[in-house]
C-alpha cells in the first residue's frame, strides 16, 4: 500500500521513514508544489488539514504531522507557531533562549498530532503524543532537527540533539503518537 508522508520538513520525514519501516508501506513524498495553509488553532486541526488536502491532491492515503514546542514560562509559546517563530532553526532557538533569559522555570513539552486520511480526504485515525522536558541555557548536540538541541530530557540526561535517533524513536512526542496509531496502520496495510 502507498502512503504519502504529507510533510515538507526533512527532519520529520526522516523520522517517519525510520519509525514506519517495519510496516511495509511504500512511502511517498509530498509533492513539493503542494503547500497547505495551516489555519488551525490546534495541532490536531492542522494535522487534519494537511492530511486531507494532501490526500485529495494526490489521490493516495496520507499521513500528516503537526507538532511544536510549548514552553510553560512563555505561556505555551511557540506552540502551533513553532515553524513560524523565526526564519531558521537557529533564529527560532535563539528567540526562545532570549525570551526565557535566566528564568529558572525551564519546563517545556513537545506535542505531536498525527492524522491519517483516505484518498478522498476523510480522516480515519488521529493521535496526540506529548514528551516533557526542559529548555537548556545553551544548545547541546546536533542530532535530530529543529528545536532538538535545546530540549533536555531529564530521564535520559541528554538533549534530543545529543541522543542517537533510536533513543529519540522510543520516547519522543512523534513516537508516542505513532505508537497509538500503529495498530490502525497495520490494519490499513492488511486491508
Ligand atoms: P510540515 O507542516 O510540512 O510537516 P513544518 O516544519 O511546517 O512542516 P509544523 O508546522 O508541524 O511542521 O511545525 C513544527 C515545528 O516544530 C517545526 O519548527 C519543527 O522544527 C518543530 N518540531 C516539531 N517536532 C520536532 C522535533 O521532534 N524536534 C525538534 N523540533 C521539532
List the helices and strands and how they pair.
Layout: E1 2-5, H1 10-20, E2 26-29, H2 43-58, E3 62-71, H3 89-100, E4 107-117, E5 123-135, E6 151-153, E7 158-159, H4 165-171, H5 173-190
Parallel strand pairs: 1-2, 1-3
Antiparallel strand pairs: 3-4, 4-5, 5-6, 6-7
Helix pairs in contact: 4-5
The protein binds inosine 5'-triphosphate.
Active site: 66 (proton acceptor)
Binding site for Mg(2+): 37, 66
EC number: 3.6.1.66
Description of the structure:
Its EC number is 3.6.1.66. This is dITP/XTP pyrophosphatase. Keywords: Hydrolase, Magnesium, Metal-binding, Nucleotide metabolism, Nucleotide-binding. Its cofactor is Mg(2+). With 191 residues, the chain is an alpha/beta fold. The chain has one domain (2-190): Maf protein, CATH 3.90.950. Helix content is 34%, strand content 25%. The longest helix is centred in the C-terminal third of the chain and has 18 residues, at 173-190. It is globular, with a radius of gyration of 16 Å. It starts with a strand and ends with a helix. The model has no long low-confidence stretch (mean pLDDT 97). The structure holds inosine 5'-triphosphate. Residues 7-9, 12, 38, 50, 65-69, 82-83, 110, 144-148, 160, 172, 174 line the site of inosine 5'-triphosphate.
Amino acid at each position: 500500500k502507498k502512503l504519502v508522508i504529507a510533510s515538507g520538513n526533512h527532519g520529520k520525514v526522516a523520522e517517519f521513514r525510520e519509525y514506519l519501516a517495519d510496516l511495509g508501506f511504500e512511502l511517498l513524498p509530498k509533492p513539493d508544489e503542494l503547500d497547505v495553509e495551516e489555519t488551525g488553532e490546534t495541532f490536531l486541526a492542522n494535522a487534519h488539514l494537511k492530511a486531507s488536502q494532501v490526500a485529495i491532491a494526490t489521490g493516495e492515503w496520507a499521513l500528516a504531522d503537526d507538532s511544536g514546542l510549548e514552553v510553560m514560562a512563555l505561556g505555551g509559546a511557540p506552540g502551533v507557531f513553532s515553524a513560524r517563530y523565526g526564519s531558521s532553526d537557529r533564529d527560532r532557538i535563539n528567540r526562545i533562549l532570549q525570551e526565557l533569559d535566566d528564568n529558572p522555570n525551564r519546563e517545556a513539552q513537545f506535542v505531536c498530532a498525527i492524522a491519517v486520511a483516505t484518498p478522498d480526504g476523510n480522516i480515519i485515525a488521529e493521535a496526540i503524543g506529548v514528551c516533557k522536558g526542559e529548555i537548556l541555557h545553551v544548545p547541546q548536540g546536533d542530532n535530530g532537527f529543529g528545536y532538538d538541541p535545546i530540549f533536555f530530557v531529564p530521564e535520559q540526561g541528554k538533549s534530543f540533539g545529543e541522543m542517537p535517533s533510536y533513543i529519540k524513536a522510543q520516547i519522543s512526542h512523534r513516537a508516542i503518537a505513532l505508537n497509538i496509531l500503529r495498530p490502525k496502520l497495520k490494519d490499513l496495510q492488511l486491508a
